[in-house]
TrEMBL record:
Belongs to the class-I pyridoxal-phosphate-dependent aminotransferase family. Its EC number is 2.6.1.-. Keywords: Aminotransferase, Pyridoxal phosphate, Pyruvate, Transferase. InterPro entries: Aminotransferase_I/II_large, AspAT/PAT-like, NHTrfase_class1_PyrdxlP-BS, PyrdxlP-dep_Trfase, PyrdxlP-dep_Trfase_major, PyrdxlP-dep_Trfase_small. It is an enzyme of class 2 (transferase). Residues 33-377 form the Aminotransferase class I/classII large domain. It catalyses: L-aspartate + 2-oxoglutarate = oxaloacetate + L-glutamate. The lineage of its organism: Bacteria, Pseudomonadati, Pseudomonadota, Alphaproteobacteria, Rhodobacterales. Pfam families: Aminotran_1_2. This is Aminotransferase.
Amino acid sequence: MQLSRRITGLTAGGSDGWDVYYRAKDMLAAGEPVIQLTIGEHDIGTDRKIIDAMHAAALEGHVGYSMFNGNLNLREAVAARVATRTGVPTTPENVLVVPGGQAGLFAAHHAACDEGDTALYIDPYYATYPGTIRGVGARAQPVFARPDRNFQPDPAEIAAVAPGAKSLLINTPNNPSGVIYTRETMEGIAGACQDHDLWLISDEVYESMIWQGEHISPRTLPGMAERTLVVGSMSKSHAMTGSRIGWIVGPEEAIEHLGNLSTHTTYGVAGFVQEAATFALGMGEAFETEVSDPFRRRRDLVIDMLEGQTAVRAIPADGGMFVMLDVRATGLSGEEFADRLLTEHLVGVMPGESFGQAAAGHIRVALTVDDDRLAGAIGLLIELATELAA
């Protein structure tokens, strides 16, 4: 039987670029002491109080069908959080609950694009972005954010390819680079979207992890609330990666239609998970700071360790769970360097090439192990880079 081109073409016929990650996992399973700095998984796990709230909700009967667009108490909590943090009036009618940020990205592109439409995204990108766009039948077209601009997108380059496109996907704080888009960048992006009638899909799952600078949600910019779909999630802010709970915030009409999409796809999110998410949001910003503080500390640790050498350069890590490192001075590609680092020193990192062409010659380091193991891994990384650069 013939499978659809849409499903067989999600990764454009190649690998997804995560070969080093898969090899590191296999080595760990075989008992080798690999330090895994590949994926953005918290090392603390979900807080016991949130798990207890989920358990209690299940025992209380929140195990049947939930509201397909999200239970009202959770949508109210999300709307209040967004309104408080952005200053943009937001009601439950602006919120759709989805099973995680990835489902939100998929649904948002369904809202913005018809079959065959062009959907733009910034390169470097989180690994699923092109496949998500292809999955809705649209044509995925990258716009390169270049290393010489510290991976800040150039609005002029967006505008140059925008004619005829339907949407633009951005992510700030950015995964993989750790860069936060500046106000100048965001205003330029907003201008390009307005000039060329683009939907802006804004992935803001790292908005609680800001180390320096200012996070600007595009809904706050003049004329953008009616053309912006913001994707949020509990995964990073509350260490609830496995719970699969997130949201889309956007114009009421779009959210209403996206609710219809949920009816025909996910049919809602488990009620006990929604109750746990509502409880978790009620723990306030202090709890989110508790979750994020280790990543701030480890980011500073890595930056300090890189001082005084020239073989590795850090891209400004303004936010998020990662530091991106420029290893081009070694003469190797990011993929080659990551492969050598894993083979020779048992340290697993992601090659920049896993996240697009713009990040070639770079590697992404996840700050997801304890400080001592991270320091040991970075020491080995610097040792290898210095040896190669010499």
